Amino acid sequence: MEKYVCLICGHEYDPEQGDSDSDIEPGTPFKDVSDDWVCPVCGATKDQFEVKE
Fold it and tell me: E strands within 1-53?
């Protein structure tokens, strides 16, 4: 699964880890993360993330 990185602060969303602070289970692909989810570090919206190369 692809990792995504926040364009604002560089936080990385790793689908293998999910985001326990937001109740996103490990194994959740980024496309399945709720559209109202925000970066846990800076609060950027989901559309401010791009695939990590």
Answer: 4-6, 12-13, 49-51
